[in-house]
Amino acid sequence: MENLEASIPSLVYLQRGAFSKISKVVEKINSQNAIILTDQVVLEILKERIEKLGFEKIIVTEANLLEARKIEAMLSYSEVDAIVGIGGGKVLDVSKVVASELNVPFISVPTTASHDGIASPVASFKEQGRPISISAKAPIAVVADIDIIEKCPKRLIHSGFGDLISNITAVKDWKLSRDLTGESYNEVIASIATIPAYLMLNKAKDNLSLKEDLETLLRGLIMSGVAISMAGSSRPASGAEHKFSHAIDYLGYGFGTHGEQVGIGTIIFEFMYENHYGDGDWRAIKEAMKKVGAPTKLSEIGLSKDQAISALLQAKMIRRRRFTILEALNPSKEEFERILRETELI
């Protein structure tokens, strides 16, 4: 159900040199005691810039819920009135949880473009090797410096591409659930999630450089996070392709990033939509992923055919209340094997 009082970023700086806007953002939200959360790697790379901000900082050493709870406890008797998370997805997720528990504003300063957690109200962790998602505070501001993000490993940018285009099948699942189960659906929120995804897909199809379109990708990931906030759940950005990715994580298979896994899943489920409902173009998605350098073979993320099929079958058991094309068609092992062959993922 859509969240009519959704918390979405009121300040967004998405440009080269945006890092210099952090102090301005802190001032605009009337913060007097902001604290930076970052990790050692990011601190070493951006040490001079971070030190120049003049805020107290805490180093995030573990990307898990326990780490967030430890930091929250450490700060609970302090005068902290804002959390500035500077780093990749895990630092931002820890920062969200800490800000939520302390009930203070969260400023998101991503150093990668790997997934839509940049602006979403969801924190994702692995606990005992298994993925969990926690509702958390969405950022009041996003400061995305293109100069910094374009220097992150290209694999992380490819991952962000996969996470963004996965909105295409996620929204199809949402519509399907509306039609078959009567689930509440919002076309405006769906459009916020999918328009940037199709824009990015079309740019890739035109064989444009992903580096040139990094701003477009980041804007799309931010809009994806906004759609999640407005929907009150990850529905507009998480469907069968995310169930597949979670199943891979649960089973401990492969070495793909989240975005790489959902990208592969998007090819699979777009194929199913095209073949069963006449709605889709899996070849266009696969070709776009190839052009940006994202994985388009199971072997590229360390999956065998049998492992992928096991994960696809397991996916039906994950988030059972979230109706997707998996529940509508209930594909067999043989059907999944045929799909993997026809899409040439194996």
Report what the structure shows:
This protein is of the alpha/beta class. The chain has two domains: 139 residues, Rossmann fold, CATH 3.40.50; 189 residues, Dehydroquinate synthase-like, alpha domain. The protein has a six-stranded parallel β-sheet, with helices on both faces. The protein has a two-stranded antiparallel sheet with strand order 6-7. Helix 8 packs across helix 12. The protein is globular and about 60 Å long. The model has no long low-confidence stretch (mean pLDDT 94).
What features would you highlight for this structure?
single chain; 346 residues; alpha/beta; Rossmann fold; Dehydroquinate synthase-like, alpha domain; 2 domains; six-stranded parallel beta sheet; two-stranded antiparallel ribbon; 15 helices; 8 strands; 53% helix; globular; cytoplasm; glycerol-1-phosphate dehydrogenase [NAD(P)+] activity; G1P_dehydrogenase_arc; lipid metabolism; metal-binding
